[in-house]
Design goal:
Two copies of one chain form a homodimer. With about 200 residues, chain A is mostly helical. Chain A has a single domain (about 10-185), classed as Orthogonal Bundle (Tetracycline Repressor, domain 2). Helices cover about 65% and strands about 0% of the residues of chain A. The first copy, chain A, has ten helices and no strands. The first copy, chain A, has helices spanning about 10-20, 30-35, 40-45, 50-75, 80-95, 95-105, 110, 115-130, 140-160, 165-185. The longest helix of chain A is centred in the first third of the chain and has 24 residues, at about 50-75. The first copy, chain A, is elongated, with a radius of gyration of 20 Å. Mean pLDDT of chain A is about 90; it is low at about 195-200. Chains A and B meet through α9 and α10 of A and α9 and α10 of B. The first copy, chain A, binds a DNA duplex (30 and 30 nucleotides) through α2 and α3.
Chain lengths: ~200, ~200
DNA sequence: GGTTTTACCCTAGCGGCATTAGGAAGCTGA
DNA sequence: TCAGCTTCCTAATGCCGCTAGGGTAAAACC
C-alpha cells in the first residue's frame, strides 16, 4: 500500500486550485479526497474540518494577493499607486475567484489575528491614501470606501452583474479615474475633540 | 389528517424570514419543512428545488427593496436623492440580510428577465444620476461604481469587516458626502464615434 | 539492522441533506 | 355522490461531513 504523501500545505494548495476551478462551495472534503485518490476520512489527519480548510484557502489567497499588490504598488504614489493597487486587486480576484471568495468569509477574530498579510494590506492602503494628503479620520473613511468599491465592483463582475464584454475594462478604468478625483477632493472632516475615533478598525 | 395549507407564496415568505434570521445558507428544504411541521418531500409540491426556493427569496427581496428605495427617493434630486437611495438600500440590507444575500446570487438571464423590480431599480439609479448632469457613457460607469460602492460597503459591514460600532454610521455618511462630491466632479468622457457603447448592461 | 514509535490511511458507521417515486387522504366541482 | 386534482405521506437513493478504531508504512531510535 503506497501512501499518498499528503500534508496540510499540499491539501490546502489543491483545495485552492480546486476552488478557482469549480467555485469555493464546490470544494468539499469528498471531492478533494477523490482528487487525491484517497478516502474522505484520510483528509482529517491534515485538516480539522471543512471550515478550517476554507480558512486555510483564505489565508493562502490573502497572502498571495497582498504580495502581488505590494509588488505592483512598490515605488509608486498618487494615481499611479491607486491604479496599480486596483488593477492588481482585480486581476487577482478574476484569476483566482475561489481564493478571492474565501477571503470574503466571516472570520473569528482570532483566526486572522496573526495574519501578516492582513496588517500589510492595511498598511498598503493607508500609505497610498497618505500620499493623497489624507489623515485620520479621513484615512479610515476613504479606506473603507475604496475597499468597498473594489470589492463591490469585482463582486458584480464575477457574479455576471454586467456582461463580460470588453466594455467592462473601460468602465473599470473610468471608475479608477473617478476614484482618483474623489481622493483628491475628499471632503475632509476634523477629528472630534474627545478621543474615541482612533479606535476604529480599518 | 389535517393539512398544513401551504402554497408557493407562503413557503417563500417563510423561507425569506428564515433567511433573515439564520442566514441564507441555513435555509434548507429540511429546516423549512421542520418549521412547517411537515415532511421534506411535501415542500416539493410547492417549490421545484432548493435553487428555485432561493431564487424566489431573491425576487421577493428585490421587489421589496426596490419598493422601499423608490418610496424614499420619490420627489428628491441631487444629494437628497443620493442619500435617500443609499440609506434605504443599506437599511434594507441590514434589516433583511438573508433576502439581501439572495439578491446577490448568480441568476440565469431568463430567471430575472421579467423582473419589474430590476428594471425599476435601474431606472431609479439613472434618474438620480441624470440629475447630476451625467449622460452616457458616464451614466453607466457612475451607476456601476455606485452599485459597487453600496454593495461593497454593506458586504463589509455584514461580514464584520469593520467593528459594529457607532463609528460605522459616521463613516457611511461621510462616504456618501464623498460620493456626492464625486458625482458632481465626475470626469466625463465622450462617447466613441462608432456605436457599440450603447449596448452595455447597467 | 532491528525495534519502537509515530503518523498516515483505511474500513465502518452515524446523521443530515436534496431529491424522486408512488401511494393515500383531503378538497372541489359536476 | 363520486371523479379528479392537490397535498401530504412513506420509502428509498445518493452525496456529504464527521468520528472511532485498527493496521501498516515510514521515520526515529538504539
Amino acid at each position: 500500500m503506497v501512501r499518498a504523501g499528503l500534508s496540510a500545505a499540499k491539501v490546502t494548495e489543491a483545495a485552492a486550485e480546486m476552488a478557482d476551478e469549480v467555485g469555493l462551495d464546490q470544494v468539499t472534503i469528498s471531492a478533494l479526497a477523490r482528487r487525491f485518490g484517497v478516502k474522505d476520512a484520510s483528509l482529517y489527519s491534515h485538516v480539522k474540518n471543512l471550515r478550517e480548510l476554507r480558512v486555510r484557502i483564505a489565508l493562502l489567497g490573502g497572502a498571495e494577493m497582498t504580495e502581488r499588490i505590494a509588488a505592483e504598488v512598490a515605488g509608486r504614489a498618487g494615481k499611479d499607486a491607486l491604479v496599480a493597487f486596483a488593477n492588481a486587486y482585480r486581476r487577482f480576484a478574476l484569476e483566482h475567484p475561489g481564493r478571492y471568495a474565501a477571503t470574503q468569509m466571516q472570520f473569528d477574530p482570532e483566526e486572522v489575528a496573526d495574519s501578516v498579510a492582513l496588517r500589510r494590506s492595511v498598511e498598503l492602503t493607508y500609505g497610498m491614501l497618505r500620499a493623497y494628503g489624507l489623515s485620520e479620520p479621513d484615512l479610515t473613511d476613504a479606506g473603507r470606501l475604496l475597499r468597498a468599491a473594489f470589492h463591490g465592483y469585482i463582486h458584480l463582475e464575477l457574479s455576471g452583474g454586467f456582461a463580460h464584454s470588453r466594455q467592462v475594462e473601460d468602465s473599470w478604468s473610468r471608475s479608477l479615474d473617478a476614484l482618483h478625483v474623489l481622493l483628491e477632493n475628499w471632503p475632509s472632516h476634523q477629528p472630534p475633540e474627545a478621543g474615541g475615533r482612533d479606535e476604529r478598525m480599518p
